[in-house]
Design goal:
The complex is a heterodimer of chains A (569) and B (161).
Chain A lengths: L21 H22 L1 H9 L1 H7 L9 H33 L6 H24 L18 H31 L7 H32 L5 E2 L1 H29 L1 H4 L7 H14 L16 H35 L4 H7 L6 H24 L1 H7 L4 H30 L6 H27 L16 H34 L25 H23 L9 E2 L9
Helix pairs in contact in A: 1-4, 1-5, 2-4, 2-17, 4-5, 4-6, 5-6, 6-7, 7-8, 7-10, 8-15, 8-18, 10-11, 10-18, 11-12, 13-15, 13-16, 15-16, 15-17, 16-17
Chain B lengths: L4 H26 L26 E4 L4 E9 L2 E3 L9 E4 L3 E9 L4 E5 L4 E5 L5 E7 L3 E6 L12 E6 L1
Parallel strand pairs in B: 2-5, 4-10
Antiparallel strand pairs in B: 1-2, 2-3, 5-8, 6-7, 6-9, 9-10
Classes of the chains: A mainly alpha (569), B alpha+beta (161).
C-alpha cells in the first residue's frame, strides 16, 4: 500500500489580484520597509558627496555646515546602505513575493524566513551603530580592503546580512523542490527560474567574501590575528564582487522579462531565450572578477586576458536581453498603435509610472552597458581604473537600470502592501524623469571628470591636483546630484503619501505570471549540470589567480593592520 | 527551441562585435606594447630598508632611460625628497621612465594623469610600469585608491622639461 501511495497535489493557494494575504503582507512588508530604511539612511549621502567634490560648491558647504567634514564616512554610508542593505533586503522581499505568487504556494519553512529577516535587521542595526558610533574607524568604504580594519561590529553586521540572504536562498530552493515534486515534467515559470539562478550565483560567489571576512578581517578586528595579505583579500573580494552586481541586476531583469511586457501592453517575445540568458549569467558572472583587478600587481597578464575574454562573454546575455525586451516593447508599441522607430518610442506607456520608471532605467542601463564594455577592455581600463569614470559607470547601471526598476516595482508593490492606491502618479512620473536627467548628467560628468584625471572616492575639495577641466565636470556632477535630490524628495512624497495619506483602493494588479506560455528544453532545469559547469569554470579562471596571489614560499605576508583614521606622519 | 531569424542575426552581430573588441584588446597589449601591471616581485613592507626601496629615488640608467623607486605611505609618495613634501620628478622630454612602487602601510593607488600608468600599490607587492614622456609639461601623480583621511592630498608631479 505504501509503495503505491501517491501524495495528492495540494490545492494551489489563490492569491488575490488587488490585495495580499496577511502572511504575505507581513513577510514581504517587513523586508520592503527595512529596505526603505536603508535607502533613507544612504541616499541623502549621495548629493552630499557630489557637492563636496565640486569646486563651485565645496566652499559654500565645508566649514559652514559642520557635518560636511565627514566625506569618507558619507561614502561608506552611501555604499553600505544602498549597495548592500537596500538591495539585499529589497531583493529577498521581492523574491519571496514572486516565488509565492508564481508557484501559487507559500514559502516553505516560513518561520526560518523570519529568522533570516531578524538576522538581516540586526545586521542593519549593527552597521548603523558602527557607522554612527565609531565614525573614524568605520570609514572603510563598502569594499573594506585590508589592511584597513573596521570595528568588529561592522563585519558582524555584514555576516548577518549574508547569512540571512543564504537562508532566504535555501527557502526559495526548498519551495521550488516541493513544487517540482507536484509538477513533474513541467517548466517552472520564468520569474522563479531567474530567481533560482540569482540565489545560486549569490550563494556560490559569496563564499569568497565569507572566507575573507571570517578568516581575515573579523579575526583581525577582534585582535586574534595580527597580519594579513591584502592581495589575497582583494582576490577573495572580487570573486564575490562581480556576481554581486548581477545579484542586483537579475531581479530587475525579472521585472523586465516577466512583468513589463504585460504592463507595457504586449507580451514577452521569447521565453526560452530568456532562460538561456539567465543560465549564461549563472555560468559567466563569477569567472570574470579579475576585470576589477587589471591594475593589481600580484596577478599576471594571462589571468587578466582570460577574465577579459569571459567578461565579453557575460555581455552576451545582456545583449540578448536588449533584443528580447526590445522586441517585447515593439509588440507593445504596435498594440498601442505605434509604427516605425518613432512610434516605438512614442507609443509606450510613458504616463504609467510603473512602465516609465522601468523605461528610464533601461535608457540609463544602455549607457551603463556600453561603459561597462569599455571598462572590460583592459587597455582602456588602464586610463579609467579608479577614476571617477567608474562611479559614473555604475551609477547608470546600479543607480540607473536597477534602482529605477526597483522604484518601478515599488510603485505597484507599495500600494499593494498598504492596501491603498499610489498617492500621486504625477509625482511618480516626475520622479522618474528627474532621475533620468539627473543621473544622465551625473554619469556623463563623472565620466568626463575621470578622463581628466579626477580619482574616485577622494575628498576633492582638498585635492591639489584637480585641473580646470576636471573641476568643471565635477561641478556638472554636483548639478546632477541636485536634480537627483529633487527626485529623491519626489520619491518620498509617494512613499509617505501612499503609506499615510492615500485613501483610494488599489488600482494596479500584481503582474505575476503563473503559467509557462512557451516550452523550453528540460536541460535548462538540470541545476546540477549548471552548478558543475560553474565549479569547473571557477577552477579554470580563479585557480591560477589564487595560486599566484598566495605566496607559498614566504607564507602569509606579514602586513600589519591599521585603521582609516590613523595618521602615520 | 525556436530562435527568431532576426534574433539569430542579432546574436551573430553581437558575437562579431565582441570578438572585434577582444581582438583589439589583444592587439593593443601584444602588438602596441601597452602593458597591464603584472607580478614584479615581492617585498617585506616591515623591512623595506633591506630592499631596493631602502632609498626611494629617481636615477638615470643611461641615455634617456630612468628608474624610479617610490614608496607610498599614508599620505605621501616618497621619492627621495624631504619628508612632508610631495615628490617632483624632473625628466627631459623623450625620457622613458620605469616606475617601481610599493607601499609601507595600506593599499594606495598610483596614476599619472594623461598617461597609461595606473596601478594598485599593495603592501608586500611591487607595482611596475614603464612610460615614455614625450610632451613637456607638468603631470600629476595621483593616489587613486582610498587610503584614509588624508587620501586627497596624496600626490606628486612629473615635470617633463
Amino acid at each position: 500500500m505504501q509503495a503505491t501511495h501517491v501524495r495528492p497535489a495540494p490545492v494551489p493557494v489563490s492569491f488575490p489580484a488587488l490585495d495580499m494575504l496577511r502572511s504575505e503582507r507581513n513577510l514581504v512588508g517587513v523586508h520592503i520597509a527595512s529596505a526603505l530604511i536603508a535607502l533613507t539612511v544612504g541616499i541623502f549621502m549621495g548629493p552630499f558627496q557630489a557637492f563636496h567634490r565640486a569646486p563651485a560648491f565645496a566652499k559654500t558647504f565645508i566649514g559652514q555646515i559642520p557635518v560636511f567634514s565627514y566625506y569618507y564616512q558619507a561614502v561608506t554610508v552611501h555604499g553600505v546602505m544602498l549597495a548592500l542593505f537596500f538591495t539585499t533586503l529589497f531583493i529577498v522581499g521581492f523574491s519571496y513575493y514572486v516565488v509565492q505568487r508564481s508557484l501559487q504556494r507559500p514559502i516553505k519553512g516560513v518561520r526560518f524566513a523570519w529568522v533570516a529577516f531578524a538576522l538581516m535587521l540586526i545586521g542593519l542595526a549593527l552597521l548603523v551603530f558602527s557607522l554612527a558610533n565609531d565614525v573614524q574607524r568605520s570609514a572603510v568604504l563598502y569594499t573594506f580592503y585590508p589592511p584597513m580594519i573596521a570595528p568588529a561590529v561592522f563585519y558582524i553586521g555584514l555576516v548577518l546580512l549574508v547569512v540571512g540572504s543564504w537562508i532566504a536562498a535555501f527557502l526559495v530552493f526548498w519551495t521550488y523542490n516541493s513544487w517540482r515534486k507536484d509538477h513533474p515534467g513541467e517548466r517552472v515559470p520564468l520569474a522563479v527560474f531567474a530567481i533560482i539562478v540569482n540565489f545560486l550565483m549569490w550563494f556560490i560567489s559569496s563564499l569568497g567574501v565569507a572566507v575573507e571576512v571570517l578568516f581575515m578581517l573579523l579575526p583581525a578586528s577582534l585582535g586574534w590575528i595580527q597580519t594579513t595579505d591584502p592581495q589575497v583579500a582583494r582576490a577573495l573580494f572580487w570573486f564575490f564582487g562581480h556576481p554581486l552586481v548581477y545579484f542586483w541586476l537579475i531581479p530587475a531583469y525579472v521585472s523586465w522579462y516577466t512583468m513589463l511586457p504585460k504592463q507595457a501592453g504586449g507580451r514577452l517575445f521569447s521565453d526560452p531565450l530568456a532562460r538561456v540568458a539567465f543560465i549564461m549569467l549563472l555560468l559567466f558572472s563569477i569567472p570574470v572578477g579579475v576585470h576589477h583587478m587589471y591594475a593589481d600587481p600580484g596577478v599576471s597578464q594571462v589571468a587578466k586576458f582570460v577574465h577579459a575574454f569571459l567578461t565579453f562573454t557575460v555581455a552576451v546575455p545582456s545583449f540578448m536581453t536588449a533584443f528580447n525586451i526590445g522586441a517585447s516593447l515593439e509588440i507593445a508599441s504596435r498594440n498601442n498603435g505605434g509604427r516605425g522607430i518613432v512610434g516605438f518610442f512614442l507609443k509606450q506607456r510613458w504616463n504609467d509610472p510603473v512602465v516609465a520608471a522601468q523605461l528610464v532605467g533601461m535608457l540609463l542601463f544602455l549607457a551603463g552597458g556600453i561603459t561597462g564594455l569599455m571598462n572590460a577592455s583592459a587597455q582602456i581600463n588602464i586610463t579609467l581604473h579608479n577614476t571617477s569614470w567608474v562611479p559614473g559607470h555604475f551609477h547608470t547601471t546600479l543607480g540607473g537600470g536597477v534602482t529605477m526598476t526597483f522604484f518601478g516595482i515599488l510603485y505597484w508593490l507599495l500600494p499593494m502592501l498598504r492596501g491603498r492606491a499610489l498617492f500621486s502618479k504625477k509625482a511618480a512620473l516626475a520622479q522618474a524623469f528627474t532621475w533620468l536627467v539627473g543621473m544622465a548628467l551625473f554619469g556623463f560628468s563623472m565620466g568626463e571628470a575621470g578622463l581628466n584625471g579626477a580619482p574616485r572616492r577622494a575628498d576633492l575639495a582638498a585635492a591639489p591636483y584637480i585641473s580646470t577641466e576636471a573641476g568643471m565636470w565635477l561641478n556638472g556632477a554636483a548639478i546632477g546630484g541636485m536634480i537627483l535630490l529633487v527626485s529623491v524628495v519626489l520619491l518620498f512624497v509617494n512613499i509617505i503619501g501612499t503609506l499615510f495619506f492615500s485613501n483610494k483602493p488599489v488600482e494596479v494588479e500584481a503582474p505575476i505570471q503563473t503559467k509557462v506560455e512557451e516550452p523550453s528544453p528540460a536541460i535548462f532545469e538540470r541545476w546540477r549540470v549548471w552548478i558543475a559547469i560553474v565549479v569547473v569554470l571557477c577552477l579554470f579562471a580563479w585557480g591560477p589567480v589564487f595560486a599566484e596571489v598566495l605566496d607559498f614560499n614566504a607564507g602569509f605576508n606579514a602586513i600589519p593592520y591599521t585603521t582609516s583614521g590613523a595618521p602615520l606622519r | 527551441m525556436h530562435i527568431d531569424r532576426y534574433e539569430r542575426y542579432w546574436l551573430i552581430a553581437v558575437a562579431a562585435t565582441l570578438g572585434a573588441f577582444f581582438a583589439t584588446l589583444v592587439a593593443t597589449l601584444v602588438v602596441f606594447g601597452v602593458s597591464l601591471p603584472s607580478p614584479a616581485g615581492r617585498v617585506d613592507p616591515q623591512n623595506l630598508s633591506a630592499s631596493e626601496f631602502a632609498q626611494p629615488s629617481v636615477r638615470n640608467v643611461g641615455g634617456n632611460r630612468y628608474e624610479a623607486h617610490l614608496v607610498a605611505k599614508m599620505w605621501q609618495f616618497e621619492a627621495g625628497e624631504e619628508a612632508g613634501s610631495p615628490p617632483k620628478i624632473r625628466v627631459p622630454a623623450g625620457s622613458e621612465v620605469t616606475f617601481y612602487v610599493t607601499s609601507r602601510d595600506i593599499i594606495h593607488g598610483f596614476q599619472i594623469q594623461y598617461h597609461t600608468v595606473n596601478m594598485e600599490v599593495i603592501p608586500g607587492q611591487v607595482s611596475q610600469a614603464t612610460v615614455k614622456f614625450n610632451r613637456p609639461g607638468v603631470y600629476q601623480i595621483v593616489c587613486n585608491q582610498y587610503c584614509g583621511a588624508g587620501h586627497a592630498v596624496m600626490y606628486g608631479e612629473v615635470i617633463v622639461e
